[in-house]
Specification:
The protein has helices at about 5-60, 90-110, 120-130, 140-145, 150-165, 200-205, 220-295, and strands at about 75-80, 115-120, 135-140, 170-180, 180-190. It is an alpha/beta fold. Helix content is about 60%, strand content about 15%.
């Protein structure tokens, strides 16, 4: 059995760790609140933009007059991977890296080359470079200061490579934020863009008495769609960034809560052990005193 000093030192160490995990949980909760507000404010705008484009495409018989909609034989693929810059967020990073490796392996079996990887997050960058992509693009700074303009610049570079034929598909791998307790790994195609021309939102039609919404546009629907498609692509990459950030903070809140609960349980066990050891030591001393007085 450990000595009283050892148990007391262990209690102090666990108590100190508990204070750290509790503080980290509070910080992550604050960041989660801000990130959740950002993503929930962005989603209605993204849905409405896609709905407007879907309505236009439906009126144009489902054809997209855009180089970003070109479907080519799949030879080269670019992957955009979202993780965090730091750890202590449970399996958040490990699950994304596992999904990335599975995707790469699946493409290799099909004879498709993953020619470019864009890493949002230091953990993604480390895993990607370890897997052999030493020239992976590092966008981890955007996680510390998320902004639309830098994200749009990254999307524009990928779009240009798609138009130039350097890549035939661009895919996103990230956590989709559903709630504080639920984050789902999502694999989504950024390019070529695909707009469901039939997705005119039946609920919205019922809201307007079964009538489909129509728009009067100038100069033409084709030209409006050509201008909206790049904006939609910029927005999709930026929304995935906000989704990943909210999911990261939610995962960290849960991980720190579990760590704090485990520390509380360990403190109870160590306190019990300390009291038992102390009581045993006192009993032993009493027996020695009584035994000495009887001699």
């Amino acid at each position: 059995m450990a000595s009283l000093k050892e148990v007391k030192t262990r209690i102090a160490s666990v108590n100190s760790t508990r204070k750290i995990t509790s503080a980290m949980k509070m910080v992550a909760s604050s960041k989660l609140h801000k990130a959740q507000q950002s993503i929930e404010s962005m989603r209605p705008y993204e849905r409405l933009l896609n709905k407007i484009m879907g309505t236009f495409v439906q009126s144009m018989e489902g054809e997209l007059p855009s180089p970003y909609a070109a479907v080519r034989p799949l030879q080269r693929v670019a992957l955009v991977v979202y993780t965090s810059n730091s750890s202590l967020c449970g399996g958040f990073n490990a699950n994304i890296i596992k999904a990335f490796n599975k995707k790469v392996e699946a493409y290799r079996k099909e004879g498709v080359e993953v020619s470019q990887v864009v890493a949002f997050g230091k953990k993604a960058l480390e895993a990607v470079r370890k897997a052999g992509w030493t020239d992976a693009q590092d966008c981890g700074a955007l996680l510390d200061h998320p902004a639309y303009a830098p994200a749009a610049k990254v999307a524009a570079e990928l779009m240009q490579k798609f138009v130039d034929g350097e890549v035939d598909r661009v895919e996103l791998i990230y956590h989709h934020f559903r709630s504080s307790a639920s984050q789902v790994i999502t694999q989504e195609t950024l390019l070529p863009i695909s707009i469901d021309a039939t997705a005119t939102d039946e609920a919205e039609e019922e809201k307007h008495g079964g009538r489909k919404l129509d728009f009067i546009v100038e100069p033409s629907k084709e030209q409006i769609v050509l201008q909206l498609i790049p904006k939609a692509l910029y927005l999709k990459l930026y929304t995935a960034l906000l989704d990943s950030l909210a999911s990261e903070h939610a995962a960290r809140v849960i991980a720190m809560q579990i760590a704090t609960d485990n520390a509380d349980e360990l403190l109870r066990e160590l306190t019990l052990t300390y009291n038992k050891t102390r009581q045993q030591a006192i009993t032993t001393e009493l027996l020695d005193i009584v035994g000495g007085s009887m001699q």
